[in-house]
Amino acid sequence: MSSEIAKASQPVSQDMVVLENVTKEFKTGKKTFAAVDDVSLTIKRGEIFAIIGYSGAGKSTLVRLINGLETTTSGTLTVDGRTISGQRESALREARHNIGMIFQQFNLMNSRTVASNVEFPLKVAGWDKAKRRARVQEMLEFVGLADKAKSYPDQLSGGQKQRVGIARALATSPSLLLADESTSALDPETTSEVLSLLKKVNAELGITVVVITHEMDVVSSIADRVAVMEKGRVVELGNVYDVFSAPQTEVAQRFVATTVKQAPSKDEAAELKARHRGYLVNIEITEGNQGIGKVLSYLGNRGVQFNIVQGGLETLQGKSYGNLTLELIGEVTSVDAVIAELGTVTRVKEVRS
Ligand SMILES: Nc1ncnc2c1ncn2[C@@H]1O[C@H](COP(=O)(O)OP(=O)(O)OP(=O)(O)O)[C@@H](O)[C@H]1O
């Protein structure tokens, strides 16, 4: 059997990146510090996966472990079935042909033309000249910059530079693209242009995309799943809608608060209480709790009036999430009964000042 046939008959694993108990420690003086602390995570083939966290959470270190630029202190890490952890530099170089990377500051060579920047990894990989030329042309067309082949990076806008970065990263046909804060240096309009291109990379070329960011908007507009990192650990992981609609950890709640107004803070609660004499509760809205409308429509029959006094709603993946603060007015026993009933269809919190 030829090796090609043997390769084709092997089932392709659905796991693109697998980390098992991966830790990366740095030593500064006598102190040891875990920048990545016992992370286990599987990124599936073909998905767009986001890693979000505040500065210092360990995101960049995690990405550098995935492409073998940092060595793991312990744990195992594989990319597309190849072991990365514990490998020699020569094996890592080979593995990196299968991993593209784009950066916040684009990292283009300013003394070379756009075409020469995109060609560079092909030269390193030993492609002959005719094949390189054809591939550069193909990649520049894919990112919509065929007319800029002879321009220099300094003559391009930030968004165009990042598109060159993407063309260069994809030139050698990797199966994985790592995007480390790839839109953080861009304005909102250019950001959405670059994110659309990353979606196209994923949808049309089938490339798995890992996006590192500290911006929740980037996660909501592009990712299928998200991991939230804090102090080197993955503290929350799930489908983007599930994490946005019901964040479990304080850090995830802080990120979600940047996209939709959260339940009133203590100060806001005091201010709401001063203006409203009824009983104030905050209810969570998700696509799963469609019974809320039914309960609210019965309130009049239960002798309870309600006003919506605050709230925030957003739509993600075609589904709503957010929360509403309600003022309930009526006899204490009736209000209590209504709160209990709401509690059967959604999460209800008393608004306390
Ligand atoms: N080479 C190194 N030596 C010592 N400490 C390091 C090294 N690289 C990273 N760290 C530390 O590890 C922690 C995580 O850094 P990392 O850059 O991975 O975080 P991050 O989430 O990507 O943050 P940022 O967005 O600011 O880059 C930080 O406290 C950082 O100072």
UniProtKB/TrEMBL annotation:
<keyword id="KW-1278">Translocase</keyword>
<comment type="subunit">
    <text>Homodimer. Forms a membrane-associated complex with FtsX.</text>
</comment>
<keyword id="KW-0067">ATP-binding</keyword>
<comment type="similarity">
    <text>Belongs to the ABC transporter superfamily.</text>
</comment>
<dbReference type="InterPro" id="IPR041701">
    <property type="entry name" value="MetN_ABC"/>
</dbReference>
<dbReference type="Pfam" id="PF09383">
    <property type="entry name" value="NIL"/>
</dbReference>
<dbReference type="GO" id="GO:0005524">
    <property type="term" value="F:ATP binding"/>
</dbReference>
<dbReference type="InterPro" id="IPR003593">
    <property type="entry name" value="AAA+_ATPase"/>
</dbReference>
<dbReference type="InterPro" id="IPR050086">
    <property type="entry name" value="MetN_ABC_transporter-like"/>
</dbReference>
<protein>
    <submittedName>
        <fullName>Methionine import ATP-binding protein MetN</fullName>
    </submittedName>
</protein>
<dbReference type="InterPro" id="IPR027417">
    <property type="entry name" value="P-loop_NTPase"/>
</dbReference>
<keyword id="KW-0472">Membrane</keyword>
<dbReference type="InterPro" id="IPR017871">
    <property type="entry name" value="ABC_transporter-like_CS"/>
</dbReference>
<dbReference type="GO" id="GO:0006865">
    <property type="term" value="P:amino acid transport"/>
</dbReference>
<dbReference type="InterPro" id="IPR018449">
    <property type="entry name" value="NIL_domain"/>
</dbReference>
<keyword id="KW-0547">Nucleotide-binding</keyword>
<dbReference type="Pfam" id="PF00005">
    <property type="entry name" value="ABC_tran"/>
</dbReference>
<feature type="domain" description="ABC transporter">
    <location>
        <begin position="17"/>
        <end position="256"/>
    </location>
</feature>
<keyword id="KW-0029">Amino-acid transport</keyword>
<keyword id="KW-0813">Transport</keyword>
<dbReference type="GO" id="GO:0016887">
    <property type="term" value="F:ATP hydrolysis activity"/>
</dbReference>
<comment type="function">
    <text>Part of the ABC transporter FtsEX involved in cellular division. Has ATPase activity.</text>
</comment>
<dbReference type="InterPro" id="IPR045865">
    <property type="entry name" value="ACT-like_dom_sf"/>
</dbReference>
<keyword id="KW-1003">Cell membrane</keyword>
<dbReference type="GO" id="GO:0005886">
    <property type="term" value="C:plasma membrane"/>
</dbReference>
<dbReference type="InterPro" id="IPR003439">
    <property type="entry name" value="ABC_transporter-like_ATP-bd"/>
</dbReference>
